[in-house]
């Protein structure tokens, strides 16, 4: 018999619509799981059980005819995202007591759609790294194998979804921060087109690199949460692409993108780095499934190469210069301090020149892949990494370079602003997830989602679960992630 967390987000909402479950039922069930194994996988910085119960009771009081597709479903908010009245640490000891007075726009939309947040998920400090190992919470661990990282900066969100603590979660992606954890944890992580999801009410747009997006177990769940997030807001710095008829959930359910020309490549873009055979094999498998679905898959050159890295890293240094109280700078992690020190050395003129050169590189890359509807490549150059692997040398410069070599694909599509999704299409030789990256044309999110759903439907990797999925309390889980609860 299925447990509540076995149901996808849409299935949970449908069970509520039929009167079989209530939001209170679902919230209590998932809060129990959070209490049991949340710290084991390092999913949450802050859990808000009383706020969640209050929101669940309010959700149950809404008439059925007024409910949307995800009404009453448990979720979680990344700890980089402002939440009024709820502690938001930005993954940093420097903000351990910070409580924002306002919600981010995406949080307002999530609340308005009737979803119920259980709390704030673990992230990297100021979103600066692709792993989530800081000083304000346990490290985000991969539920498939607890010795490995769940990634970052949306690592806690991925750990929560992959462990069955919530069915969907909000995250954000400035250089792969949704897609990297999705690949590591066997999930669907979606980075929308630039401007599709509001970054307000605070912040400048950060050169268009970061955006909020959804993380979930299935493409339809992710599309449903994208519909919730993608609400136009006046004053945003980028014009949002038009929504498709019926929304993104309808596009996912149809799963009919038309016949596509898909450009395949495996050459890393931000580093001259060997690609692990398991990552290449996942791309080969995706290409075979897409070909069998009637699409044309052709080899193309990578849009950009390692020559773009010096430009991207300048931008990343500057993005690390988020306001921090001067008296608390010493509480930042070594990597964050290094990035901020380098960012402080970048002049306004050098930044403007870097942005201009980077845009020139983007134009050249677009010409190299002209005529392709989608691009297919690995999400990562290496399938997994142990917790502590990036910081093992004690040298933040080596840490930063190791991250570049581990993830030389995702960040390019933050630069271009194109929609991009990581899908769980492969496994390592020992059964751990391996993602592939499918990227669409700017503003063509509906077609990308339809193609992702079609690919998911043809794969046997859909909605797989790690052994910890069956754990009922933390005493039943040991360090290898195997559930040893009584059967």
In short:
Helix content is 35%, strand content 14%. It is of the alpha+beta class and 487 residues long. The chain has a single domain, classed as Amidase signature (AS) enzymes (Alpha-Beta Complex), CATH 3.90.1300.10.
Could you describe the 3D structure shown?
- By secondary structure, the chain is of the alpha+beta class.
- The chain has one domain (9-470): Alpha-Beta Complex (Amidase signature (AS) enzymes), CATH 3.90.1300.10.
- 35% of the residues lie in helices and 14% in strands.
- The chain contains 15 helices and 13 strands.
- The strands form 3 sheets. An 8-stranded mixed beta sheet has the order 6-8-7-12-13-11-9-10, sandwiched between helices.
- A hairpin with a 2-residue loop joins strand 4 (141-142) and strand 5 (145-149).
- Helix 7 runs antiparallel to helix 8 (247-254) and helix 10 crosses helix 11.
- The two termini are 13 Å apart.
- Residues 473-487 have low confidence and may be disordered.
